[in-house]
Specification:
The complex is a heterodimer.
Chain A lengths: L1 H25 L13 H28 L2 H32 L8 H22 L3 H28 L23 H40 L1
Helix pairs in contact in A: 1-6, 2-3, 2-5, 2-6, 3-4, 3-5, 3-6, 4-5
Chain B lengths: L2 H45 L1
The chains are: A mainly alpha, B mainly alpha.
Chain lengths: ~230, ~50
Protein backbone atom coordinates (compact mmCIF):
# COMPACT_ATOMS: atom_id res chain seq x y z
CA UNK A 1 0.00 0.00 0.00
CA UNK A 2 2.76 2.40 1.01
CA UNK A 3 4.71 1.63 -2.18
CA UNK A 4 1.62 2.10 -4.37
CA UNK A 5 1.04 5.55 -2.87
CA UNK A 6 4.68 6.47 -3.40
CA UNK A 7 4.56 5.32 -7.05
CA UNK A 8 1.38 7.34 -7.57
CA UNK A 9 2.98 10.42 -6.04
CA UNK A 10 6.06 9.93 -8.26
CA UNK A 11 3.81 9.69 -11.33
CA UNK A 12 1.91 12.86 -10.33
CA UNK A 13 5.22 14.66 -9.71
CA UNK A 14 6.69 13.65 -13.09
CA UNK A 15 3.42 14.38 -14.93
CA UNK A 16 3.01 17.88 -13.46
CA UNK A 17 6.67 18.70 -13.99
CA UNK A 18 6.60 17.76 -17.69
CA UNK A 19 3.26 19.38 -18.47
CA UNK A 20 3.90 22.47 -16.37
CA UNK A 21 7.48 22.75 -17.63
CA UNK A 22 6.15 23.07 -21.18
CA UNK A 23 3.73 25.79 -20.00
CA UNK A 24 6.54 27.72 -18.31
CA UNK A 25 8.72 27.49 -21.44
CA UNK A 26 5.89 29.09 -23.44
CA UNK A 27 5.59 32.08 -21.10
CA UNK A 28 7.06 35.42 -22.25
CA UNK A 29 10.75 35.97 -21.51
CA UNK A 30 10.22 39.24 -19.64
CA UNK A 31 7.40 40.50 -17.44
CA UNK A 32 7.20 44.17 -16.45
CA UNK A 33 10.93 44.52 -17.13
CA UNK A 34 11.87 41.76 -14.70
CA UNK A 35 14.42 39.54 -16.42
CA UNK A 36 15.18 35.90 -15.61
CA UNK A 37 11.88 35.86 -13.74
CA UNK A 38 11.25 32.20 -14.61
CA UNK A 39 13.55 31.25 -11.73
CA UNK A 40 10.58 32.22 -9.54
CA UNK A 41 8.73 29.10 -10.77
CA UNK A 42 11.20 26.96 -8.82
CA UNK A 43 12.49 29.47 -6.24
CA UNK A 44 9.07 30.22 -4.68
CA UNK A 45 7.64 26.64 -4.78
CA UNK A 46 10.87 25.44 -3.12
CA UNK A 47 10.27 27.98 -0.32
CA UNK A 48 6.59 27.03 0.01
CA UNK A 49 7.51 23.33 0.14
CA UNK A 50 10.16 24.02 2.78
CA UNK A 51 7.75 26.11 4.86
CA UNK A 52 5.04 23.44 4.56
CA UNK A 53 7.60 20.93 5.84
CA UNK A 54 8.72 23.13 8.73
CA UNK A 55 5.13 23.79 9.82
CA UNK A 56 4.29 20.06 9.57
CA UNK A 57 7.37 19.32 11.68
CA UNK A 58 6.20 21.93 14.20
CA UNK A 59 2.82 20.19 14.54
CA UNK A 60 4.55 16.81 14.97
CA UNK A 61 6.95 18.30 17.55
CA UNK A 62 4.07 19.77 19.57
CA UNK A 63 2.30 16.40 19.36
CA UNK A 64 5.46 14.74 20.68
CA UNK A 65 5.65 17.18 23.62
CA UNK A 66 1.96 16.58 24.35
CA UNK A 67 1.95 12.78 24.06
CA UNK A 68 5.57 11.68 24.50
CA UNK A 69 5.24 9.30 21.53
CA UNK A 70 8.57 8.95 19.72
CA UNK A 71 6.96 8.31 16.34
CA UNK A 72 5.97 12.01 16.21
CA UNK A 73 9.60 12.92 16.82
CA UNK A 74 10.74 10.58 14.02
CA UNK A 75 8.15 12.14 11.71
CA UNK A 76 9.28 15.68 12.57
CA UNK A 77 12.95 14.76 12.01
CA UNK A 78 12.26 13.21 8.59
CA UNK A 79 10.11 16.09 7.37
CA UNK A 80 12.55 18.74 8.65
CA UNK A 81 15.50 17.20 6.83
CA UNK A 82 13.61 17.13 3.51
CA UNK A 83 12.31 20.68 4.05
CA UNK A 84 15.89 21.80 4.67
CA UNK A 85 16.95 20.54 1.22
CA UNK A 86 14.17 22.61 -0.39
CA UNK A 87 15.01 25.67 1.74
CA UNK A 88 18.65 25.45 0.62
CA UNK A 89 17.53 25.22 -3.02
CA UNK A 90 15.33 28.28 -2.45
CA UNK A 91 18.10 30.40 -0.95
CA UNK A 92 20.74 29.56 -3.57
CA UNK A 93 18.38 29.96 -6.56
CA UNK A 94 17.40 33.33 -5.08
CA UNK A 95 21.06 34.35 -4.91
CA UNK A 96 21.49 33.50 -8.60
CA UNK A 97 18.48 35.64 -9.52
CA UNK A 98 19.84 38.46 -7.31
CA UNK A 99 23.17 38.34 -9.15
CA UNK A 100 21.31 38.88 -12.42
CA UNK A 101 18.71 41.41 -11.24
CA UNK A 102 20.66 43.41 -8.63
CA UNK A 103 24.25 42.71 -9.69
CA UNK A 104 25.09 41.25 -6.27
CA UNK A 105 24.90 37.74 -4.85
CA UNK A 106 23.84 38.79 -1.38
CA UNK A 107 22.57 41.68 0.71
CA UNK A 108 21.83 41.71 4.42
CA UNK A 109 18.17 42.69 4.13
CA UNK A 110 15.43 41.34 6.39
CA UNK A 111 14.20 38.59 4.04
CA UNK A 112 17.58 37.18 2.99
CA UNK A 113 19.09 37.41 6.46
CA UNK A 114 16.09 35.83 8.21
CA UNK A 115 16.05 33.02 5.63
CA UNK A 116 19.75 32.39 6.24
CA UNK A 117 19.13 32.34 10.00
CA UNK A 118 16.23 29.94 9.39
CA UNK A 119 18.52 27.60 7.43
CA UNK A 120 21.23 27.75 10.09
CA UNK A 121 18.68 26.98 12.82
CA UNK A 122 17.40 23.90 11.01
CA UNK A 123 20.94 22.72 10.16
CA UNK A 124 21.53 23.13 13.90
CA UNK A 125 18.44 20.94 14.48
CA UNK A 126 19.92 18.17 12.31
CA UNK A 127 23.33 18.45 14.02
CA UNK A 128 21.70 18.44 17.46
CA UNK A 129 19.96 15.16 16.62
CA UNK A 130 23.24 13.60 15.58
CA UNK A 131 24.98 14.78 18.74
CA UNK A 132 22.45 13.36 21.27
CA UNK A 133 22.08 9.59 21.46
CA UNK A 134 19.48 9.32 24.23
CA UNK A 135 16.15 9.19 22.30
CA UNK A 136 13.89 10.99 24.81
CA UNK A 137 16.31 13.84 25.46
CA UNK A 138 16.99 14.15 21.72
CA UNK A 139 13.26 14.26 20.96
CA UNK A 140 12.51 16.89 23.62
CA UNK A 141 15.34 19.25 22.62
CA UNK A 142 14.57 18.77 18.92
CA UNK A 143 10.92 19.65 19.54
CA UNK A 144 11.91 22.93 21.26
CA UNK A 145 14.32 23.67 18.42
CA UNK A 146 11.57 23.01 15.88
CA UNK A 147 9.24 25.44 17.66
CA UNK A 148 11.95 28.13 17.71
CA UNK A 149 12.72 27.50 14.04
CA UNK A 150 9.08 27.84 13.08
CA UNK A 151 8.77 31.21 14.84
CA UNK A 152 11.56 32.33 12.54
CA UNK A 153 9.73 30.83 9.53
CA UNK A 154 6.78 33.12 10.32
CA UNK A 155 9.18 36.07 10.45
CA UNK A 156 10.76 35.08 7.10
CA UNK A 157 7.30 34.90 5.52
CA UNK A 158 6.19 38.28 6.83
CA UNK A 159 9.53 40.10 6.53
CA UNK A 160 8.81 41.45 3.03
CA UNK A 161 5.53 42.93 4.27
CA UNK A 162 6.99 44.39 7.48
CA UNK A 163 10.20 45.85 6.08
CA UNK A 164 11.23 47.72 2.95
CA UNK A 165 13.69 45.19 1.59
CA UNK A 166 15.88 44.74 -1.47
CA UNK A 167 13.90 41.54 -1.99
CA UNK A 168 10.67 42.27 -3.92
CA UNK A 169 7.59 43.07 -1.81
CA UNK A 170 4.66 40.62 -1.87
CA UNK A 171 3.65 40.08 -5.51
CA UNK A 172 1.41 37.05 -5.37
CA UNK A 173 -2.35 37.48 -5.58
CA UNK A 174 -3.18 35.71 -2.31
CA UNK A 175 -0.78 38.02 -0.44
CA UNK A 176 -2.58 41.12 -1.75
CA UNK A 177 0.36 41.90 -3.98
CA UNK A 178 -1.74 42.41 -7.08
CA UNK A 179 -0.60 39.20 -8.76
CA UNK A 180 2.04 38.50 -11.40
CA UNK A 181 -0.27 38.94 -14.36
CA UNK A 182 -2.87 36.82 -16.15
CA UNK A 183 -1.82 33.18 -16.40
CA UNK A 184 1.59 33.77 -14.86
CA UNK A 185 0.89 32.75 -11.29
CA UNK A 186 -0.89 29.40 -11.77
CA UNK A 187 2.16 27.42 -13.08
CA UNK A 188 3.96 28.35 -9.87
CA UNK A 189 1.28 26.69 -7.74
CA UNK A 190 1.42 23.58 -9.96
CA UNK A 191 5.16 23.40 -9.36
CA UNK A 192 4.49 23.70 -5.63
CA UNK A 193 2.16 20.69 -5.86
CA UNK A 194 4.82 18.75 -7.80
CA UNK A 195 7.46 19.61 -5.20
CA UNK A 196 5.09 18.63 -2.38
CA UNK A 197 4.65 15.20 -4.02
CA UNK A 198 8.43 14.81 -4.26
CA UNK A 199 8.92 16.01 -0.68
CA UNK A 200 6.32 13.49 0.57
CA UNK A 201 8.17 10.66 -1.19
CA UNK A 202 11.53 11.76 0.23
CA UNK A 203 10.12 12.22 3.74
CA UNK A 204 8.59 8.75 3.56
CA UNK A 205 11.95 7.24 2.54
CA UNK A 206 13.69 9.21 5.30
CA UNK A 207 11.20 7.97 7.90
CA UNK A 208 11.64 4.35 6.78
CA UNK A 209 15.38 4.85 7.31
CA UNK A 210 14.57 6.03 10.83
CA UNK A 211 12.67 2.76 11.36
CA UNK A 212 15.71 0.81 10.09
CA UNK A 213 17.98 2.66 12.50
CA UNK A 214 15.62 1.90 15.40
CA UNK A 215 15.52 -1.79 14.39
CA UNK A 216 19.32 -1.92 14.19
CA UNK A 217 19.59 -0.36 17.67
CA UNK A 218 17.14 -2.82 19.17
CA UNK A 219 18.90 -5.81 17.50
CA UNK A 220 22.26 -4.55 18.79
CA UNK A 221 20.88 -4.32 22.32
CA UNK A 222 19.52 -7.85 21.89
CA UNK A 223 22.96 -9.05 20.70
CA UNK A 224 24.71 -7.43 23.67
CA UNK A 225 22.28 -8.98 26.15
CA UNK A 226 23.10 -12.52 24.86
CA UNK B 1 16.89 39.64 -25.09
CA UNK B 2 19.90 39.87 -22.80
CA UNK B 3 21.89 36.65 -23.39
CA UNK B 4 22.75 36.55 -19.68
CA UNK B 5 19.05 36.18 -18.91
CA UNK B 6 18.85 32.67 -20.33
CA UNK B 7 22.17 31.80 -18.70
CA UNK B 8 21.04 32.89 -15.22
CA UNK B 9 17.62 31.28 -15.58
CA UNK B 10 19.37 28.04 -16.53
CA UNK B 11 21.72 28.28 -13.53
CA UNK B 12 18.81 29.04 -11.20
CA UNK B 13 16.77 26.04 -12.36
CA UNK B 14 19.81 23.75 -12.40
CA UNK B 15 20.84 24.59 -8.85
CA UNK B 16 17.36 23.72 -7.49
CA UNK B 17 17.43 20.28 -9.10
CA UNK B 18 21.12 19.74 -8.37
CA UNK B 19 20.56 20.27 -4.63
CA UNK B 20 17.55 17.96 -4.63
CA UNK B 21 19.46 15.32 -6.63
CA UNK B 22 22.40 15.47 -4.20
CA UNK B 23 19.95 15.03 -1.31
CA UNK B 24 18.27 12.06 -3.06
CA UNK B 25 21.70 10.46 -3.64
CA UNK B 26 22.64 10.98 0.00
CA UNK B 27 19.35 9.28 0.99
CA UNK B 28 20.09 6.36 -1.35
CA UNK B 29 23.60 5.94 0.08
CA UNK B 30 22.26 6.09 3.64
CA UNK B 31 19.60 3.49 2.75
CA UNK B 32 22.25 1.11 1.36
CA UNK B 33 24.46 1.57 4.43
CA UNK B 34 21.53 0.95 6.80
CA UNK B 35 20.41 -2.18 4.92
CA UNK B 36 23.97 -3.57 5.01
CA UNK B 37 24.20 -2.78 8.72
CA UNK B 38 20.82 -4.41 9.38
CA UNK B 39 21.89 -7.58 7.51
CA UNK B 40 25.19 -7.64 9.40
CA UNK B 41 23.51 -7.32 12.82
CA UNK B 42 20.92 -9.99 11.89
CA UNK B 43 23.68 -12.39 10.79
CA UNK B 44 25.57 -11.68 13.99
CA UNK B 45 22.46 -12.50 16.04
CA UNK B 46 21.84 -15.73 14.09
CA UNK B 47 25.41 -16.88 14.76
CA UNK B 48 25.11 -16.20 18.46
Amino acid sequence: MRQTILFLLAAVFAGILLWNGATILDLPQQVTNVGAYKIIYFHVPAAFTAFTGFVTALVASILYLATGKLRYDAFAAGVTEVALAFATANLISGMIWARYAWGIWWTWDARLTSMLVCLLMYYGYVMLRQAITEPTQRARLSAFMSILGCINVAFVYQSIAWYRTQHPSPVLGFREGGGMGPGLETPMYWNWLAMLCLATILASVRMRQGEFATEIDSLRRQAHSH
Amino acid sequence: MDPREFQFTFYGLMIVWLIITVYVLSLALRERRLRQELDRVKRMLEKS
